[in-house]
């Protein structure tokens, strides 16, 4: 068990809808990262927060947004959903704000858009 | 599994054999590397990391070798067990527009038969 908790485990929704994915980092970790894993793209970095502030952005669509709250949990909001957004969404956390320490991943949220 | 659509390279070994999983990384400036293991239905699990000032690091039953000259990373698993069956990813830490990102390879599927 990595100590990173993601909810829900599964989410099925329709095109055009909006969903929120939630992540609780490991105790003591200040950085939260969101990744998308799809069948044809592998693990793609979306966005990183450190201690409540956005630190880095990757291949995140404008329809997607995230935030990290004072208690360090994070939410990833996906709106105007399209079929191609169906994927596994992983949250990871680390102690520091750089990638020079291991990321610890949760077990993901599987999003299915129908 | 989640990665079937990627047509992952597959390594099939017998229980008790030693396994070697290879990874070619892209950026000669990358300075930190991590190996992850992903079992079906779970998030990537940290195995071992190595910094660019080292060329070898050992863990429990695992060894990572780094050859910066040819930008090659390998993961050696001793006495492979059926529980080692999973997809293995290498990841490199590279600078990108002033911040670091952790970029994952496409993965290798390891199948261990008893």
What do you see in this structure?
The complex is a heterodimer of chains A (about 110) and B (about 110). Chain A is mainly β and about 110 residues long. Chain A has no helices and 11 strands. Chain A has strands spanning about 5, 10-15, 20-25, 30-40, 40-50, 55, 65-70, 75-80, 85-95, 105, 110-114. In chain A, the strands form 2 sheets. In chain A, strands 2, 4, 5, 6, 9, 10 and 11 form a 7-stranded mixed sheet that branches. A 4-stranded antiparallel sheet of chain A has the order 1-3-8-7, with no helix packed on it. In chain A, strand 4 (about 30-40) and strand 5 form a beta hairpin. Chain B has about 110 residues and is mostly beta strands. Chain B has strands spanning about 10-15, 20-25, 30-40, 45-50, 55-60, 60-65, 70-75, 85-95, 100-105, 110-114. In chain B, the strands form 2 sheets. In chain B, strands 1, 3, 4, 8, 9 and 10 form a 6-stranded mixed sheet that branches. Chain B has a 4-stranded antiparallel sheet with strand order 2-7-6-5, with no helix packed on it. Chain B is globular, with a radius of gyration of 14 Å. The two termini of chain B are about 20 Å apart. The model of chain B is unreliable at about 1-5 (pLDDT under 50). The interface of A and B includes residues 4, 6, 90 and 102 of A.
């Amino acid at each position: 068990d990595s100590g990173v908790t993601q909810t829900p485990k599964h989410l099925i929704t329709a095109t055009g809808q909006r969903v929120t994915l939630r992540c609780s980092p490991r105790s003591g970790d200040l950085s939260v990262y969101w990744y998308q894993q799809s069948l044809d793209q592998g693990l793609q970095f979306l966005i990183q927060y450190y201690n409540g502030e956005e630190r880095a952005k990757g291949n995140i669509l404008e329809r997607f947004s995230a935030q990290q709250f004072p208690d360090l949990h994070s939410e990833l909001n996906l709106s105007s959903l399209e079929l191609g957004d169906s994927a596994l969404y992983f949250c990871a956390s680390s102690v520091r704000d750089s990638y020079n320490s291991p990321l610890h991943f949760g077990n993901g949220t599987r999003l299915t858009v129908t | 599994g989640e990665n079937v659509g990627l047509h992952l390279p597959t390594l099939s070994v017998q229980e008790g054999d030693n396994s070697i999983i290879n990874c070619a990384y892209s950026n000669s400036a990358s300075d930190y590397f991590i190996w992850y293991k992903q079992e079906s239905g779970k998030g990537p699990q940290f195995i071992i990391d190595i910094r660019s000032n080292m060329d070898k690091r050992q863990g429990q039953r695992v060894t990572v070798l780094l050859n910066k000259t040819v930008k090659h990373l390998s993961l050696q698993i001793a006495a492979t067990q059926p529980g080692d069956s999973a997809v293995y990813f290498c990841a490199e830490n590279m600078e990108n527009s002033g911040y670091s990102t952790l970029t994952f390879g496409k993965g290798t599927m390891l199948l261990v038969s008893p």
